[in-house]
Structures are given as C-alpha cells and as structure tokens.
C-alpha cells in the first residue's frame, strides 16, 4: 500500500513549469466575501503562483455585492489585455448565481474550466486544458501506470469542481463507470478498482467497504474536531489498498499545481 505524497507530485509539476517560458500576463484571483476557507485556498494559489514568478493579482469584494455588479467586475478584470487567466474562488455568497458570474470569463482565460464555453469545449474534447480535478486524476494514474480500459471506477459526488468533470473525463475510457450522488448506497464501492471521492462529509468511506488492491483518490474534506479530514476514514486498517491520498497533503497541492499548469498552457505563445 502506498500513501500518495501530493506535495511531492505538485513539486514535480512546478519544476516542469519552471523550465518553460513564464507567462507574461497576470493571473487574477477573485474573492467575494470573507469565508475563511475560501480565503485560505486562494492564498495557497497566490503563494504557488509567486513561487513560479507569476504576477498574481487578488481582487476582493464585499459579501453583499450584487451578482450583476460582481459579473461586471469579473468581466472587466478578464477583458484586460494583460490578464491571462481568472480564478473565481467558490463558493460565492448565497445571493449570487455562480454560473452567471463564471460565464463572464472568456474560454481562453478560464483556468478552472467552469464557464459554459470552456465546459462545452471540454465535454466535446476541444478544450486545450482539463478541469484541474480531472488533471489531478490523470497525473496520479499516470504515476501508477494504472489501466483505465480494464477498470471499474466509482466516483462519489457530482459537484461541479470534482465529481462532474472527473466523471465526464473518465466516460468512454473505462470498463465501467459508477457515479454516486448524495445518499447513494455506498456498498457498490466493494466492486470498484478505483474510488474517487468528492463528497462534503468526512469519513463516509470505511476501509472495509473497499476490496483488496483498490486505489483511492480523495478530494473530499470537512473539519472534524478542528482537523481536516477526507471522505476516506483513515483511522482504520488501510493495508489492503493499492494506494490512497491523505487529507491534507494529498490531492490539494496537486490541484493547485494543475491550475498553474492550465495557466501556462492557456498562455503558450
């Protein structure tokens, strides 16, 4: 059994990027409201961007901003000729329709692949970059030389950041794909060769729910007793697994690195 070192993999991605010509345009991060977790995630992205020498510019707006105003602001940021990419940190305040705001980002500057134009191109195999979460799965599986065509894969969660784009990317590449939503019967996970987790509850998958030599890629996170935990309960015996990503230190660092990789790809000359 192998515990995947997300920081190590992220470091390798960043080293690859450092060997490439640095994008001359800036990367914009948009934060609406004062959600502590959102601010922390965006700060992590800013830190990584600065490690690469990227000009990262943070735009902060109050939690009570109207959706029309936020869409206009995002559109103006993205419209600058010197802007090469825009990150709108989710979740947005309750009064704002996220799709309405995300659609203000042009496809060629959508590093998260969340706007309808970038998503439409991704779903039809025409987008130059993958959604970061799908990129993480691709990165991990290539490191393990994992065979998709012969595998039965389960995706837990159907969110726009993790479950949906990963399931879409896997479709047509695997022997069988199982996508499980909220309140689904998780006993079916016993049949999976790979389990990808993206739910919003901690420790919902116990080790004995998984068969021998299953791999687990865990994007889920929730705070339990002041500590971050993933969807996989790591307090039990995990020795029968092929590999798993811990929380924290698993998918998170790789996700940020893949986001930066997207920024580089979208700004290739």
In short:
The chain is of the alpha/beta class and 269 residues long.
Describe this structure in words.
The longest helix is centred in the N-terminal third of the chain and has 16 residues, at 36-51. A six-stranded parallel sheet has the order 1-11-8-7-5-6, with helices on one face. The mean pLDDT is 96. It is an alpha/beta fold and 269 residues long. Helix 2 packs across helix 8 (251-266) and helix 6 crosses helix 8. The protein has helices spanning 6-18, 36-51, 67-79, 98-102, 116-123, 132-143, 163-170, 251-266, and strands at residues 2-3, 26-32, 56-61, 83-88, 152-156, 176-180, 194-197, 215-218, 222-224, 227-229, 243-244. It has eight helices and eleven strands.
Q: Reading side by side through the largest sheet, how are the strands ordered? A: 1-11-8-7-5-6
Helicity, as a percent range:
25-40%
Rg, rounded, reads: 18 Å
- What structural category do the secondary elements indicate? alpha/beta
Straight-line N-to-C gap: 42 Å
Characteristics:
269 residues, alpha/beta, 8 helices, 17% strand, six-stranded parallel sheet
